[in-house]
């Protein structure tokens, strides 16, 4: 992907994301009444760490278009690893790309889950893999509901990727750039009053000035997923809100904070009330 193709690609990702998180359109419209310019801090993508689809592969078109790898984050309990990417054009959102570490499934009982993930990824055709839009092209395999459930018992994250494939799971409002609802507590109250459900894992607000990053997020919207044997309603995408604080050198922190990210992943857990 070249630099000229980047903005249309980000726009296509936004449109795809709205179908995964219809609440985002409603929240965006509500915020837009007082805030003519809503900036997107980052977009998040998920994958498996198998060579055909790992972070390096998913990030490749964006790297070709000028993004470079910055911070790295480890989530040992969830068996996840993530890297964030920044673009020299500071108007462009950062990317937060994570992967499920299949080889960290070490129990014999997990053999089957490892095999399932290998089997899903092997269904992707070489020609699809070469597409410029592969990183946000959705699911490339057939899967039945029982297999989804089998993954879910081991990893909510792996089950989400198996159900939805490669597509953004959230976009993020940069609170620093808002004229109203700039305080995260204010914004959370406003969203709760309007009936939106927020991710309360570890408290509504994750991080703060000491971490140079303060975040909250909605719970993912219910979305219909077509399995080979039935249709199910599963948590799809969510909207995130982030305030960045200046570091001692005066520059706004641009990285992420693993302990907060760990809980934000749970915005798509399929054991929320209502599912
Ligand atoms: C990513 C969760 C972490 C952040 O801003 O810390 C995150 C995900 O749900 O894929 O986005
Ligand atoms: Ni995020």
UniProtKB/TrEMBL annotation:
Keywords: Dioxygenase, Iron, Oxidoreductase. It holds the Pfam family HGLS. SMART domains: DUF1338 (SM01150). Its cofactor is Fe(2+). InterPro entries: HGLS. Its EC number is 1.13.11.93. The keyword rRNA processing does not apply. CDD domains: VOC_like. Gene3D superfamilies: 3.10.180.50. The keyword Oxidoreductase applies. Belongs to the 2-oxoadipate dioxygenase/decarboxylase family. This is 2-oxoadipate dioxygenase/decarboxylase. It comes from Marinobacterium aestuariivivens.
């Amino acid at each position: 992907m070249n630099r000229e193709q980047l903005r249309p690609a980000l726009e296509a990702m936004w449109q795809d994301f709205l179908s995964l998180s219809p609440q985002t359109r409603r929240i965006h419209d509500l915020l837009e009444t007082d805030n003519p310019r809503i900036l997107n801090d980052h977009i998040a993508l998920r994958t498996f760490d198998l060579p055909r689809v790992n972070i390096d592969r998913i990030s490749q078109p964006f790297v070709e278009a000028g993004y470079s790898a910055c911070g790295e984050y480890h989530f040992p309990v969830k068996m996840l690893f993530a890297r964030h990417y920044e673009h020299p054009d500071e108007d462009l959102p950062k990317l937060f790309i994570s992967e499920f570490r299949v080889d960290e499934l070490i129990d014999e009982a997990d053999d089957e889950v490892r095999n399932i993930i290998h089997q899903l990824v092997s269904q992707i055709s070489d020609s699809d893999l070469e597409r410029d839009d592969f990183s946000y092209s959705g699911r490339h395999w057939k899967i039945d509901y029982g297999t989804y459930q089998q993954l879910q018992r081991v990893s909510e994250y792996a089950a989400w990727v198996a159900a939805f494939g490669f597509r953004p799971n959230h976009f993020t409002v940069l609170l620093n750039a808002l004229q109203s609802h700039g305080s995260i507590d204010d914004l959370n109250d406003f969203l709760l009053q309007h009936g939106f459900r927020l991710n309360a894992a570890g408290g509504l607000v994750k991080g703060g000035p000491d971490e140079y990053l303060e975040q909250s997020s909605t719970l993912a919207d219910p979305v219909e997923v077509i399995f080979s044997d039935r249709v199910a309603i599963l948590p799809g995408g969510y909207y995130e809100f982030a305030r960045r604080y200046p570091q001692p050198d005066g520059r706004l922190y641009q990285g992420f904070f693993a302990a907060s990210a760990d809980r934000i992943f749970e915005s798509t857990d399929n054991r929320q009330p209502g599912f």
